[in-house]
UniProtKB/TrEMBL annotation:
Tagged with keyword Transport: no
Pfam families membership: DEAD, Helicase_C_2
Species, as recorded: Nocardioides cavernaquae
PROSITE patterns: HELICASE_ATP_BIND_2 (PS51193)
4Fe-4S keyword on record: no
Keywords, sorted A to Z: ATP-binding, Helicase, Hydrolase, Nucleotide-binding
Basic and acidic residues bias spans: 130-140
Domain of life: Bacteria
Name recorded for this polypeptide: ATP-dependent helicase DinG
Length: 630
């Protein structure tokens, strides 16, 4: 893998590398990245991997290099501005919704804010990073009291604390470093949205690349609600009091609220006239309100004014995008957070592969790596999703393809795994169960879950398609197997649940999506990974359903290219929770017979690690009993 990465960077050829857990893939891309002539960016999807790189892998590599001549071993971590504490906000106060600076929130919130302020000051004194990940425990609401977004920032030259600024120091360090470690979202903002966030580079390694499309989509998704507009208007009120633009903006927010009230939750295929008119009203009112802000001189930087103007500018940008009603965007009403601020209007790109191809792959050399890049046994699905064409793939002994402005050659390699999946793992598909229905887990599924958990004597990670299913399974196991400890997602914070699961083998942990990826529990703690159903996207998912329909219109099988691909990726990630070391043993049990009986089952099975397959439940229960030492 290291040789393939080095060759890709040297020849400016894109590379997809599937590398199983335990191959040491981070070392395999870090070494050629350090040897590359120019700066290399490493982008990860999760904080856990970022921490692993910065706290373990890179320091060990630097120690091993031992000051070799000609190798620039400098590195830096770079995140979005809101991930760093803001010294101006901490020292000068936080504007409230009316734009006034308030010194301290009251009650327990105030105590947490005070703790964060003291932490940030100690970080500034010691020359530390001021990163959110290193802060005392806190909520999102508390962190907003000590941080600012990029739009809200006064800028280094206008801020009295610009020289001490954590975010500016991180940028300066990155500009002097050979390696820059960042995340998928910041990479998307820099490369695809064209907002300069990362110092100049010509090659990027994208680890956890199976997450990239989702993260890029997330970074390009906008939301707007009447509450957002009202809050922006209230902030602007004191700054533009000489005209009525702030009041007009709040009135436009009410018009949007009325228009949203007439809509059903879900995707909006054809925009109603009332909604279109409301969005135009919000857009024009926000534009007028931005224009009404007094121009400030560099010496007159005002945090309340800057942040109020940033909020109104955000409203304008989102309303303008939504009012344009582009075919390349998907629009929907979302009621998930309706209790906090009413329904939201959301907009996301229908596809991101075009932007990724034109704005990232055309300018840089990109190495994509993950344990799950081959879906259905081939790289084609993932390659197409990120903007690479099947006709551009370079194959061994095949014709060479020159890189041009319109042709982007790429290679795909599978470097394998150190694990012997056929000997270490069993894939059990419960063919005898009825297909899953809309009403959640039925008696047959619950009986199967209890019998498997009983045979494993705990030691079970249950991955469920919904919170309701996870809770129902947990309740059944608690009732019928009271001697075991049964934990369900939501009982405590995820790190606490994972710690308890690891420490006690007679424990069961049931949960939903956040457990499918990123949970690392090697050893005897986890000998059974149970998946209740094939994780297809919900039929009413606005974005996925729109993408599926667009694929059908383009003459491609929308179900296979969108729904089955989504399911294959999650299944592979979920099954990957079982074998984490060369000594792990266990069973992946899928309680959905469609994996064995449906036509698409072969595509899904080909995306999983090559475990020994069976549908013999008694044999599986016997194997679990032996693994549990009974």
């Amino acid at each position: 893998m290291a040789e393939a990465v080095a060759n890709a960077m040297e020849s400016e050829t894109h590379l997809l590398v599937q590398a199983g857990t335990g191959t040491g893939k981070s070392l395999a891309y870090l070494v050629p990245s350090l040897l590359h002539r120019n700066r290399v960016v490493i982008a990860t999807a999760t904080l856990a991997l970022q921490h692993q790189l910065v706290e373990r892998d890179i320091p060990r590599l630097m120690t091993a290099i031992g000051g070799q001549k000609g190798i620039d071993a400098s590195y830096a971590v770079l995140k979005g501005r809101s991930n760093y504490a803001c010294l101006h906000r901490i020292r000068e106060g936080v504007p409230d919704d009316q734009g006034a600076l308030v010194e301290m929130p009251l009650g327990s919130l105030g105590e947490q804010v005070l703790e964060l302020r003291e932490w940030a000051e100690s970080e500034a004194t010691s020359g530390a990073t001021g990163e959110r990940d290193n802060a005392p425990r806190h909520t999102e609401r508390v962190w907003r009291q000590v941080s600012v977004s990029a739009r809200e920032c006064l800028g280094k030259t206008k801020c009295a604390f610009g020289e001490e600024c954590f975010a500016e120091r991180a940028k300066e360090k990155a500009a002097k470093s050979s390696l820059v470690i960042t995340n998928h979202s910041l990479l998307a903002i820099d490369a695809i949205e064209g907002i300069p966030m990362i110092p100049e580079y010509d090659a990027v390694v994208i680890d956890e690349a199976h997450e990239l499309v989702a993260r890029v989509t997330q970074a390009a998704t906008d939301e707007l609600s009447a509450t957002d507009i009202e809050r922006a208007g209230r902030r602007a009120l004191r700054q533009v009091s000489e005209d009525n633009s702030a009041e007009d903006l709040m009135d436009a927010g009410e018009a949007l609220s009325d228009a949203l009230a007439e809509l059903e939750p879900g995707r909006i295929d054809r925009m109603p006239q009332e909604l279109s008119d409301a969005l135009v009203l919000v857009r024009d009112a926000a534009r007028a309100c931005v224009a009404a802000f007094p121009k400030e001189k560099e010496s007159e930087a005002d945090a309340a004014r800057t942040q109020a103007k940033a909020m109104v500018s955000d409203v304008f940008a989102v309303a303008e995008r939504m009012a344009a009603s582009l075919e390349s965007d998907v629009l929907w009403r979302n009621d998930r957070d309706a209790q906090r601020g009413g329904p939201q209007l959301c907009v996301a790109p229908l596809q991101v592969w075009g932007q990724m191809r034109d704005k990232l792959l055309a300018d840089k050399t990109v190495v994509f790596t993950s344990a799950t890049l081959m879906l259905g046994g081939d790289f084609g699905v993932v390659a197409s999703s990120v903007g690479l064409k099947p006709t551009e793939r370079l194959v061994p002994d095949g014709p060479s393809i020159a890189r041009t402005e319109t042709v982007l050659p790429w290679r795909g390699i599978d470097v394998g795994s150190p694990f012997d999946y056929a000997k270490q793992g069993i894939l059990y598909v419960a063919k005898h169960l009825p297909p899953p229905g809309r009403d959640g887990l039925g008696p047959a599924q619950l009986d199967e879950i209890v019998s498997l958990v009983d045979a494993a004597d705990g030691r079970t990670l249950g991955l469920f398609s919904s919170r309701r299913a996870a809770d129902a399974a947990a309740e059944a196991v608690r009732e019928r197997l009271p001697h075991l400890t049964t934990l369900a997602q939501g009982d405590a914070q995820l790190p606490e649940l994972a710690k308890q699961f690891v420490e006690d083998p007679h424990t069961v942990l049931f949960g939903t999506l956040s457990l499918w990826q990123g949970l690392d529990v090697p050893g005897d703690t986890c000998t059974l990974v149970m998946i209740d159903r094939i994780p297809f996207p919900r039929p009413d998912d606005p974005l996925m359903s729109a993408r599926q329909r667009a694929a059908d219109k383009a003459g491609v099988n929308g179900f296979m290219s969108v729904a089955a691909t989504h399911a294959a990726l999650l299944l592979a990630q979920g099954a990957g929770r079982l074998i984490r070391t060369s000594t792990d043993r266990g069973i992946v049990a899928v309680l959905d017979p469609r994996l064995a009986t449906a036509r698409y089952g072969g595509f899904l099975r080909a995306s999983l690690p090559p475990m020994w397959p069976t549908s013999d439940g008694e044999m599986v229960r016997g194997a679990l009993k032996r693994l549990s030492g009974r």
